[in-house]
């Protein structure tokens, strides 16, 4: 007689176990979405290979399009170009990108980062515009670009721009700054950002008076 309630209890436990297993396996698998951005990331272009062109083989050191496809880009991230003797042209104009030259462009989304001085350098380019952004080498009259020194990225919103990069749209910069040349290759701030830095300094000075 004592065996019956025990058997019932075992049955109930088994039943509950089965329900749990069924519920677990019936639950839909989570959709494979990109994890939400939790911090800003510096993407080293080409990884350890860097941003280089081999003029002997007439090819880029690596496939930069493949590299770009392996990354997730968000506002406020930086592209870090470790390179030598190179500049980087940034544009949001697909026509300019495909032509491998910024010479003909009249739009205000095209910038030249870095400078022409020889030697190793690191060019840090902040991602400040959502959507399609294009990068290419202007060296060799666009020939390096045609031979693989070029890539396109899609910039997601992520966390949005951090305050230091959250400047007025570049479209508001005065005419005549169609293609901006960054004076220093080491720290990449667009002219708009430097301008506001100056205003900030001016503001602090006023406070000190
Ligand atoms: C990313 O690069 C920028 C620009 O060089 C620098 O200010 C920042 O400290 C770097 N962030 C990290 C996490 O390395
Ligand atoms: C450049 O290309 C040449 C010819 O393919 C090759 O012999 C050389 O090792 C390459 N240089 C570098 C630094 O990869
Ligand atoms: C490298 O490739 C470009 C573009 O295809 C071509 O115009 C150029 O003649 C090539 N240069 C050499 C050294 O092979
Ligand atoms: C680079 O990789 C992309 C795919 O990511 C491919 O479409 C393209 O043909 C490759 N380019 C070269 C020069 O191999
Ligand atoms: C950079 O330029 C210097 C001086 O012209 C040259 O000696 C060096 O080989 C160049 N480096 C690359 C990676 O092109
Ligand atoms: C993109 O650049 C081309 C020339 O490279 C120019 O004709 C066109 O107006 C530009 N587009 C925009 C939206 O600025």
Automatic annotation (TrEMBL):
Keywords: Signal. Residues 1-26 form the signal peptide. It comes from the Eukaryota. GO terms for cellular component: plasma membrane. GO terms for molecular function: electron transfer activity. Residues 41-157 form the Phytocyanin domain. It holds the Pfam family Cu_bind_like. PANTHER family: BLUE COPPER PROTEIN (PTHR33021), OS12G0454600 PROTEIN (PTHR33021:SF213). This is Putative cupredoxin.
């Amino acid at each position: 007689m004592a065996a019956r309630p025990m058997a019932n209890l075992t049955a109930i436990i088994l039943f509950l176990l089965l329900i749990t297993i069924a519920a677990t396996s019936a639950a839909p698998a989570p959709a494979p979405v990109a994890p939400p951005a939790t911090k800003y990331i510096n993407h080293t272009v080409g990884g350890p290979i860097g941003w280089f062109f081999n003029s002997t083989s007439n090819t880029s050191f690596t496939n930069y399009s493949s590299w770009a496809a392996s990354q997730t880009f968000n506002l406020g991230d930086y592209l870090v170009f470790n390179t030598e003797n190179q500049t980087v042209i940034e544009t949001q104009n697909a026509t300019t990108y495909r032509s491998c030259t910024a010479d003909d462009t009249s739009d205000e989304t095209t910038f030249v980062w870095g400078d022409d001085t020889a030697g190793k350098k690191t060019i840090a380019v902040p991602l400040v515009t959502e959507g399609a952004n294009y990068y290419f080498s202007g060296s060799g009259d666009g020939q390096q670009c045609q031979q693989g020194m070029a890539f396109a990225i899609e910039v997601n919103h992520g966390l949005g721009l951090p305050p230091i990069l959250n400047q007025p749209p570049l479209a508001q910069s005065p005419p005549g700054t169609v293609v901006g040349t960054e004076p220093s290759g080491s720290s990449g701030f667009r002219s708009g950002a430097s301008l506001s830095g100056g205003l900030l300094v001016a503001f602090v000075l006023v406070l000190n008076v």
